[in-house]
Amino acid sequence: MKAASIQTDREGHKPPTKDLYSEYRKRKKILFKSQATVFGVITLLALWSLWGTGFNPLSIVTGTYDMFVFMFTDLFPPDFSAIGSLIGPALDTLYMSYVGMVISVLFSLVLGVLAADFLTPHPIIAAISKGITAFLRSVPAVVWAIILVAGIGLGPLTGTIAIGLSGIGILGKAYAEVLNSMDRDQIEGVRATGASWLQVMGQAVWPQFKAGFVSWSLYKLDMNIREAAILGLVGAGGLGYYLQSSISLFQYKTAAMAILMIFALILLVEFVTAKLRERIL
Amino acid sequence: MGETIVEVKQLNKTYPDGTVALKNINIKAYKGEFIVIIGPSGAGKSTFLRSINRLSEPTGGEILFMGKDIVKAGKRDLRKIRRNIGMIFQGFNLVKRLPTVRNVLHGKLGYMSSVKGAFGLFDQKDVEEALDILKRVGLEDQAFKRADELSGGQQQRVAIARAINQTPQLILADEPIASLDPNSSRVVMDYLQKACREEGFTTFVNLHQVDFAKEYADRIIGIKDGEVFFDGTASQLTDETIEALYSKEKTKKQEAVV
């Protein structure tokens, strides 16, 4: 509006540089105001959350002391003689993570393709597929495990399915996003040769999708190890279950060994997936 | 005139938002013709080319390709028609992460079983043929490099090789040199024209450069506001016609001279 009035003031002549500069200043001011607002809102939200959680810097200091006392008197030294009985649960955790990942990958591939805007047979199918993944994602693995324990009972099978289900939620969305961000021109180039749907998928979509597919799937495997440990706490087998039972029996030194074992597993899987990623990509 | 390869009759295209891209286009193209289409940006050149292999769906009219109506073709027929029509794009549209030779092999997908093609299981004969075609466009040394490691001009030559490998009756080239420097542009146009002469296929090329059009074309078609504005040989295309073609004012359509 202002710009228009400047123009009529000058009877249709181009506004001179000075007016353009004031326009520049004005825009800059507006930008600054909106940035300040965003920053202010973020700060307020942070303060509110700190108050809501009863955050007290002092408790960190005193808490740290108590924590170290607990660690050194109760947890240390870890009971290394428990290693033998920990191998089984550790393998369970690995199996749960791996099979859980495979389940998620298989179902997510289908759901991801159906949810990707330009691969889906129909927009309604895409919406349904997105809905399913969103639902699976919104329920944490622990909740799935609690529900499944009631149905299937205690044990690694429960953990595997729980990890698999929540994984579909994450990988399904990740795959769909990788697929959506692909270069459509490359796909069009192959489609124009007379290639069938399957051929376009194999020769134009897959080469572009591979890198994202591999790194998301391996990332999920990584996460699954952590998740599997937590799931044990609600009775879904593996190291977590062992950890939970030794804590409730006040065998903290055995528990410490289980924690070390989880740590080692995570490092191992991280190392292996990093190597795999290098190899494949 | 030789055999008719494509006959476009009353072709219309209106986009869902109401924009009219093509209005009653009538064009007949014969075997071996090298036809260059010129016209201002947004005139409908690209839409016209993309309608011929149905990357863009026409809203009316007929396109007879070797006697079959492309507009009415079902999925299976369309696939068969598309394998006989090579397409070359402004952005090359090669699969960048795959080796050059594999991109050329893609020209054979339309002739293979779906599953074999999807997994890239090409016969030895196909591979040898693809390597041979790469040699013809002077890129045998680049055969096993990833497509995106090549320069723009080289990538476009790979795209030409992919199209040749389809053993097409028709080639559609949509602004093939618009993102290339003058030197590479000339090389690409030379290879395209050479391939057209050697293989005897009909070629439609959209171009921005009128001088290139005059130099290479057997026949020039000018499109303006979605209509055929000029249709004739390079020598018939006068400076006045060119000016009228690219001017913003609506001008009376020049009568087709052929």
Textual characterization of the structure:
The complex is a heterodimer of chains A (281) and B (258). With 281 residues, chain A is mainly α. Chain A has 2 domains: 2-52; 85-280, MetI-like fold (Orthogonal Bundle), CATH 1.10.3720. Chain A has helices at residues 2-9, 17-52, 57-75, 83-115, 123-138, 141-152, 156-180, 184-191, 197-232, 239-248, 252-280. Chain B has a domain at 4-94 and 170-246: 3-Layer(aba) Sandwich (Rossmann fold). Chain B has helices spanning 45-52, 75-83, 100-105, 114-118, 124-136, 152-165, 182-199, 210-216, 239-246; strands at residues 4-14, 20-30, 34-38, 60-65, 68-69, 85-88, 170-174, 202-206, 219-224, 227-232. In chain B, the strands form 2 sheets. Chain B has a 6-stranded mixed beta sheet with strand order 6-7-8-3-9-10, sandwiched between helices. A 4-stranded antiparallel beta sheet of chain B has the order 2-1-4-5, with helices on one face. In chain B, a hairpin with a 2-residue loop joins strand 9 and strand 10. Chain B is globular, with a radius of gyration of 18 Å. Chains A and B meet through helix 8 and helix 9 of A and helix 2, strand 6 and helix 4 of B.
Query: Distance N terminus to C terminus of chain A?
Result: 55 Å
Structural class of chain B comes to alpha/beta
CATH topology-level name of the largest domain in chain A: MetI-like fold
Radius of gyration of chain B, rounded? Answer: 18 Å
SSE pattern of chain A, N- to C-terminal: HHHHHHHHHHH
Largest interface: A-B, 22 and 35 residues
Give the strand order of the largest sheet of chain B, numbering strands 1, 2, ... along the chain.
6-7-8-3-9-10
Report the CATH architecture of the largest domain in chain A: Orthogonal Bundle
Sheet with the most strands of chain B? 6 strands, mixed
